Predict the 3D structure of the following.
Amino acid sequence: MFIEIFKSKIHRVRVTEANLNYVGSITIDEALMEAANLVEGEKVQIVNNNNGARLETYVIRGERGTGVICLNGAAARLVQVGDIVIIISYAYMTPEEAKTFQPVAVFPDENNRLVIHTGQ
């Protein structure tokens, strides 16, 4: 049996762009992706702290060091530039694996730059 466990998150990151005319997904600065152990194409949940919207999409690698957080396609209707969001990933594992698994939480600064990287 497998259960779905919190794997990682980028906590309270600022939306820099919303592009309605793109196919879909979220573009994330590559440095933040690496810190949060996210891979391109991975499914993530986005939680908008400003309006309570929640959505699922997949990750696209953004240019390293730019701080880009861009919601693309239909997801762009659920955010405004400047909104604060949490980007969460999950993983399937056995209950035994879950007991010792250590998730990653990334806490960027107000410019979406990595400043604190902890175990949760």
